[in-house]
Design brief:
34 residues, alpha+beta, 26% helix, zinc ion binding, Carbonic anhydrase, Carbonic_anhydrase_sf
Length: 34
């Protein structure tokens, strides 16, 4: 939140945080969204 573009993105709803995990053995990609 200390960067102006992050603060602005949170305020106007245009910033989205997405995480993921790729399992190289199985080839599965899991995505996490809040």
């Amino acid at each position: 939140k200390t960067y102006p573009f992050v603060k602005e993105g949170i305020a106007n709803g245009t910033l989205k945080l997405v995480g993921g995990h790729y399992d190289f053995v199985s080839g599965n990609l899991d995505l996490w969204e809040p």
